[in-house]
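Q: What would this chain look like folded?
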Amino acid sequence: MVAIHSPFLKLLMVLLMMPMAQETLLGTGSTALAAPLSESNNSTTPVVNNPSFDSYLSPSVGLKLPLSSRSEDSKAAVDPWMHVQRHLNHAKRRYAQINQLRVPTDDDLHAAMLKRREWVENEWLPLQRRNMDTSDEEVSTSLSHHLAQAPGKMMGMVRRTGSGSYLQGRSSGYPQADAKAANQHSVTSAGDVSTSHTSGLSIEANDIGYFVQVQVGSNNDNYKMLVDSGSADTWITGSSCSNCGGSSRNKLSTSNSNSLSVDNSEQYKISYGTGSVTVNKATDSMTIAGMQLDNFNFGVASKETSQFGGSNIPFDGLLGLGGSSLSTTKMTTPIQALYNNNKVSNPIVGYRLGRVADGDNKGQITFGAVDESQVSGSLHEFDNQSQNGYWEITLDSVQVGSKKVVSSSSSATLDTGTSLIVAPESAANAIHNAISGAKSDGQGGYTLPCTSNVQLSFTFSGQTFTMDSRDLLFSASDSSNLQGTCVSAVSSGDSGNGGWLLGASFLKNVYFATNAKTNQVALGKLND
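A: My prediction, written as structure tokens:
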């Protein structure tokens, strides 16, 4: 490596070597008549409009709620490019698992982070320094002076005043609300719901994760659980887990639930797209959307990697809602337990993922049926193509605007636990070749102008669903210039003919439901 003599460059190296905040990353019939369900939060009676997906029909409620930022989160700034690489690492590992390709090792993912950091040092920051006065005399003063003069993209720090701040407002470009949420790693609280067996979904940061509140134990304490349709193990952080979460983390133990029983004879390591947890099997009561499960089996975590145990992680555990064959612990999934205990008529889960940029959080999750009040028009059913527990359907084609860029049939896995979209390399290139100003970063990611208003459309078995153009912008590369360069929500996977992984960037645009009994998936256009 070339020796660094400039004090300014030395400062940049120091900044780049500072510890960075950890981001949340995870990994994704028959006719049944619906009858009134017991233990409901209200008296709403389900109605049936789809043969395999029962529905709860009621007025939808959306409350405009402010961002709720925790002080410990705002201390942990992340360079946007490293933030993106973490999500790329997670998405690529889960993509490989789904498509039965070589799964990247921890060393591979670490090497990708180092390569990204080298790219930031040698390509991205030099490009930004062209717009700065970098004479040694001017940069050899205090650290605070350097930070005040540095671009907002350095370590993700955002200038709160001045014409470049995202707080000034933009008529177009990357949404201000997303920039603020990403910078503060804040939580957008869940809104109220009026449908039976439904709970609101809170949003982590700029739509990178969604979690629901459940009640556990003899005291019915609240626990925030990340919802993940791409895994099948449910766990909660235990009190014995040191360095797991910040001050807001609610940990489970016999001290706050005298009905908790933990089996200490065996431990299980559960691995995700990035990160892992080590759990013991446990039994306690768990109430999900108003329905209590007595003697429910789940994991209590004694060890968590930083992706789950970091101080800025806003949830207390994970709700695994994929197929049971994905489970490491081989315990029953929550929806299957609700069904087995006659709490719901069918093992159906319906999702609507919220969007910070909308201003009001309409995110919700329904157990046992779908909420048709969230759907505009028909709910379309698709047979699950996966034999491994994922929720996978056939993808016919992809369009950028009115231009069809992918016409060969493929598979697409729908995963609420992944933020990005991962496409075969040829498809990812075709998409970005059709977007003016889009470029590859040479590492599986792409950039595009933040002012791009291109819409991406996916057709599944003849049914087309279109993404909001805002959802193609995963993050701004410079949080002080929201009309500059943005990171694309679409990344590339393998160089062959593998399938697609459609995470929250796509799923925010549809009503998504799964039925474990009929092994089907349903998609519908949202009723705004």
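The chain is about 20% helix and 30% strand.
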